[in-house]
């Protein structure tokens, strides 16, 4: 390891925290001295180690250390933004000057401006997000090789698209001229493996991954490789099915994409641009009465936890869907003002979005479905957020009498998203908590499956 790489691993994040906060205060002072009526500054530093192996050999070994600072200034209702990748005082001052110069030439926007001081976060609980991993490059390589080997050693696995191990740590500061100063520090670690099963005309690829803020929260390298192999092998012999109208069970990972489409449709930007199929749907019953969709931003160690959003507004436990009804839009300060509403603290997105469950296991949901399609992969971009039309390529398994019969590929599933939401029959207890959207399997009654 070079001296530069060794120095990188020894970055003092405590000292860096103080430095970024001091620089943020300096930026605000410079902006005020240059005539800005309000200003906001965000600064970040992140570092990481990434290792990739393929066919039992190291392909990549990367150390990274990125940094940046952005400043937004307001001259009344005129806004200017500029950024820099340097944290040197001269570069930062030039960035503030550039933002002020831009603001003087922009058009006035009647809703532009910082959040009200009363909306900004004042509580900063310890969310336990920062767990550095003292992982050496040699140890990372050994883990990645072990992960891939656990899959390659399975009978029927013919090739590998590689295994990877990643560890990263981030520090960021957000401050504005209305007295807000927020500090975020967190880690994210992951391991993944992609394998190919079969040969010649019958080859299938699949993967598995694990991610956590804590090193000890990761699955073992051997279990990740073995699961990737199991999934790839289970897809061998895939075939199409005749076009039909049947129930569809989405795996938790695929169910999360449906939640993502819904959240995009109720996001303020889509609403004020009038480019959403859920325009003016507030208060409308879109899901079964048992379903609730809410965020939990203060969960300890969770991937989406935060005390404040990108506007500095305090996060809270928002209920977007309550007993099946759309009860709240997803709004930033700007989009809320455009719509004549109040911010929901969602500038930059949601925080640990959770879907209520009806409690069944995945096996029980297969039994409840009886005959239909179990979807484990979606392909393509066939989702029209303006009309709500949904049509995507899919792969998975055909189910008869509540049991998986054979793998399926080269099919398309289609429905209107509002119809899909209203025909939701159950949400399983097999919740996937690896991402920012936490949901189990979704059983939907009646989608069009287009096949042979």
TrEMBL record:
- List, for all copies, the residue spans of the domain called Metalloprotease TldD/E N-terminal: 39-103
Q: Where is the Metalloprotease TldD/E C-terminal domain?
A: 243-451
What Pfam families does its record include?
Answer: PmbA_TldD_1st, PmbA_TldD_2nd, PmbA_TldD_3rd
Identify the GO cellular component terms for this protein: cytosol
What is the protein name for this chain?
Metalloprotease PmbA
Q: Which organism is it from?
A: Terasakiispira papahanaumokuakeensis
Q: At the top level of its lineage, which domain of life is listed?
A: Bacteria
In Gene Ontology terms, what is one molecular function of this protein?
Answer: metallopeptidase activity
* UniProt cross-references to NCBIfam families, sorted A to Z: PRK11040.1
What residue intervals traverse the membrane? none
UniProt domain Metalloprotease TldD/E central: residue ranges: 130-236
Q: Can you tell me which family this protein belongs to?
A: Belongs to the peptidase U62 family.
What are the record keywords, sorted? Hydrolase, Metalloprotease, Protease
